[in-house]
Amino acid sequence: MTTHYLVLSALLFAIGGAGVLVRRNAIVVFMCVELMLNACNLAFVTFARQHGNLDGQLIAFFVMVVAAAEVVIGLAIIVMIFRTRRSASVDDANLLKY
Amino acid sequence: MNGTIQAPTIEYALLSPMLIVFGAAIIGVLVEAFAPRYLRKSIHVPLTLLALVGAFITTILTALNGLPDKAAAMGAVAVDGPSLFIWGIILVLAFISVLLINDDEQFVAQASAVPGSTDEEEAVRSGFAQTEVYPLALFAVGGMLLFPASNDLLVMFVALEVMSLPLYLLCGLARRRRLLSQEASVKYFLLGAFSSAFFLYGMALVYGYAGSIELKAIADSLSTVTGQDTLLYIGTAMLGVGLLFKIGAAPFQAWKPDVYQGAPTAITALMASTVLVAAFGALLRVFWVALGGLEWNWQPVMWGVAILTMIVGAVLAITQTDIKRMLAYSSVAHGGFLLTGVIAIGTFAQNTQALSAILFYLAAYGFTTVGAFAVVTMVRDAGGEAGHLSRWAGLGKRSPVLAAIFAFFLLAFAGIPLTSGFFGKYAVFAAAVSGGALPLVIVGVVSSAIAAFFYVRVIVLMFFSEPAADGPTIATPTLGTSAVVALAAAATVVLGIFPQPVLDLADQAASALFIR
User: In which region does residue B116 sit, left (phi positive, over 0), alpha (psi from -120 to 50) or beta (all else)?
Assistant: First the structure.
């Protein structure tokens, strides 16, 4: 029965990945990355159930903490560039190239 | 299993290098919170340097005391020969980079002030400094120590984040050209978070396959679990994406030039030298220890990645007009050369040779990189560092010593005999040849030749063209910067002329291979 959860997790991961690639707003891009991390959590918990051990559930907690730390850093950086440029669009940040 | 919970055993002595670095980082945060502003820097600098020296000494003591035969902290952290050698390199390089970080007013006065605003002027006038740089650098170094030593994937993921998160912030703190710096920070952050999501999903799939995240259990499961190969293959690929991103291997190299150019040069020096070392340690551990039994499956892909990385790095470096971007692409190419060593997995003797070659290469490359970026900090224009290559024309006539040292570093990158780069490259390619990867070595030698072209082009530009009338000024080096350049140049010479002691040390570190 766990297959459904794995399919859902793969779907969430794919939606997140596609979002990172197509969305322009840095905050939305970042939310999509968080969605990918949550897809990983779902996969971990599902596999923990499948294998009958607790490793996967434990990892999910670690991932949540890491994701929270990442939000702190990420929002700080995005707010910093928004205040400078008045825009959080990743297309506007185009000074560094070639 | 009778209801009592066994307390875990933690080998504090073995872990002490990391504990010292993290401890000092936490003290640094407290200093930031409680010490008055004018005192902070004078506390941070000695604290940071002492912590790095202390960690280095404990690393050496651990090595002298003999190595344990199993992983520390309930199998989570493997303190073995390669780990200790990598720790030693990272700590020395971090020490040198901190001298560079300390030296220069490269960092923003107040990161929260909008560039060009009155707030910023006010902050600059009051002589503010963002001294959080030091604890952040220590946290990053702590993560780098843990990353290559982690013996299960969860520890590796946490270490990856502990290493990366401070670096994302540090990239955005340049005092001049803040827009570039902030842009580098955003790009590094978004792409880094994207790639660690891939690492994590790969970890989930491998866990689903093996039922455990310990590297040894994964290795054991390769021969026992059947019918789940799809999970394993996709998981391996995704783990590979996460790790190769950190190395900056093609096709995941896009962030490297942008971040290296935008970040404050002292931070670029820290990143360019140490992250590569840590990431190769982790890559080797995942692909040799956990997935060594799967070599027939991942080797062909890694061949492709290595070839692409070497060629992309060497060819794109030719087209660059900015010195930091050029060094970034050169670092991509060097990542490719190192990958040829990773592919040369095989028999026990073969593994030892390849591992020792990689360790030596990392040490040699790290020193040269820090030195090269230290020179870059000294060539300045009105608006900060003179990054554009045309500004470097005729530098040899203005400042012969500096230009000669830089030329020497470039020759070491190119791998000319009598420099450390030559022995590094020779060792890695020799290991690859005996591992049966001759075509790879041929591509490596060809791209080394292409790379030599753009290194020599810079040397020609510096010595054989007329300096522009309004050319860049050479900042009088402070004690720290001169020490960095001198140390890096000395290391490049010594490793190039008397490589034997370090080669022996690398051999010795590699002889036990990774513990499982």
Answer: left
Buried b (16+ CB within 10 A) or exposed e, B228-237: eeebbebbbe
If we measure between CA atoms, which residue out of A27, A70, A38 comes closest to residue B193? A70
Interface of A with B in 29-48 (CB under 8 A): 29-30, 33, 36-37, 39-40, 43-44, 46-47
- B211: alpha, beta or left? (left if phi > 0; alpha if psi -120 to 50): left
What span, in angstroms and rounded, lies between the C-alpha atoms of B381 and A71? 37
Here the tokens at position B459 are: 């040397």
Could you tell me the fold of the domain covering A24-85? Helix Hairpins (1.10.287)
User: Three-state SS string across B383-421, please?
Assistant: CEECCEHHHHCCHHHHCHHHHHHHHHHHHHHHCCCCCHH
Which residue has 């901190």 as its token pair? B98
Q: Which residues of A touch B186 (CB under 8 A)?
A: 26, 77-78, 81, 90, 93
Asked if B154's CB is within 8 angstroms of A62's CB, the reply is yes
Complex ipTM: 0.97
Q: How far is CA B135 from the centre of its chain?
A: 18
Q: What are the tokens at B164? A: 């990366």
Looking at the DSSP bridge assignments, the partners of residue B388 are: B322
Q: How far apart are CA B56 and CA B251, in angstroms?
A: 35
**Contact between B186 and A93 using a beta-carbon 8 Å cutoff:** yes
- Say how far residue B169 (Cα) sits from the centre of its chain: 17
Nearest CA among B408, B215, B429 for reference residue B343: B429
3-state helix, strand, coil split of chain A in percent (to 5) is 80, 0, 20
Neighbours of B484 (CB within 10 A): 28
Element (DSSP H or E) covering residue B430: helix B420-434
B74 pLDDT more than 90: no
Asked if pLDDT for residue B23 goes beyond 60, the answer is yes
Answer yes or no: do A47 and B182 touch at CB < 8 A.
Answer: no
Backbone angles phi, psi at B384, to 5 degrees: 120, -145
* CA neighbor of B170 nearest in space, from B123, B254, B100, B240: B100
Q: Inter-chain contact A33–B190, Cβ cutoff 8 Å?
A: yes
Cα B95 to Cα B229: distance, rounded to the nearest angstrom:
44
Give pLDDT tens digits for B240-289.
999 999 999 989 999 999 999 999 999 999 999 999 999 999 999 999 99
Q: Do A44 and B205 touch (CB under 8 A)?
A: no
Nearest CA in chain A to B258: A96
Using CA atoms, how far apart are residues B12 and B60, in angstroms rounded to an integer? 15
Contacts of B33 (CB under 8 A, 6+ apart): none
In whole angstroms, give the CA distance from residue B486 to residue B272.
19
Residue B104's pLDDT band, with cuts at 50, 70 and 90, is low
B476 at interface of A, judged by CB pairs closer than 8 A: no
DSSP secondary-structure letter at B380? E
C-beta separation of B321 from B389 below 8 A: yes
Sheet holding B384-385, edge to edge: B384-385, B379-381, B473-474
Q: What would the DSSP string read from start to end of A12-49? A: HHHHHHHHHHH--BHHHHHHHHHHHHHHHHHHHHHHHH
CA B499 to chain centre: 21
